# Entry
Amino acid sequence: MKYSITLDISKYILSLMIVAIHSALFPNILYPWLRLAVPLFFIISSYILFNRIKAEGDECASNLVKNYIKRNLQLYLFWFILLFPITVYVRRSWLDGGLIAFFKTFIPQLLFSSTFVASWFIIASVWAVIILFFTRKISWKIMLPVLSVVYIICCLRSSYYFLLEGNDVISNIVYNYESIFTSPVFSFPVASFWMYIGKLFTELKGKTVFSKQILITGVVVFAVCLWIEWKVVIKLGGFNNNDCYIFLAPLVFCIFALMKDIDINCKYSKILRTISTVTYPLHASLVVIVSGVFSHLIGLNYSWLNFIITVIFCHLATFIILKLENVRWLRFLKYSH
# Structure
């Protein structure tokens, strides 16, 4: 498809941005621009899936969604097993309250969010696709406002929670919800919003909604607004985490609207796509190892060096996997990507 090569290259660039997030690469300079990466990842995944559904017909939708879920669960299981020793070390605090407390934390994380570091994207995308599949007949005039409210709630939990602190009713609601479903910022609520945007683009395909000039203007204006919002949040109260911002949504919309129609030729696009897929589940655990080694050996942790080494190892891991998965008894390595 015309857009696939461009999106493969985009996913590779986005994977580097995500490594930069978790290695804390120049946060005072690169934030909040790095926060574009995860939303665009969700949108691209959804856009590709629902484009296929649109092309092959609604009668194929169920099988396509099942295959999407199967591939993602295989990906999750592969990296869950491979990274299990690192996960045990990183998540060791889960055992502090005993076995019952561990399962109260582990099971919601396993079902709805993250076990190995940064794995929440995979599970969140599975739940989001299921939600969007069963609501696919509902008009965008209903779905978009509802999911926009969901996203605003995610922004409140992420960047604006200082506005709600001190309210016992809200605190209890948040506590009870997150004890079951974990934070909406790192699970299916935020994923459903972003993936619906990707689905919406497939429904609008071929329709001229905004001109290129308007979209470019939108990118500039909303980028400035996002930067101002980020600074204001820091000044007023700081963020609970800095994943979700109000102006991130229109900025991401404009960027993807421009990006999806760019036609780029690159013979290495499939390799870049594989690197991005391997990088996403692997990188955060590598960051933990690399930063730990630096701190132990020299007592310092240079974020830029952590970033470079992690990226190199992710690339090496990908090439090793691509080489070894052709060996008969190592074909299971294909589930890594």
Notes: The chain has two domains: 1-30+266-337, 37-264. The chain has a mean pLDDT of 88. Residues 269-298 form the longest helix (30 residues).
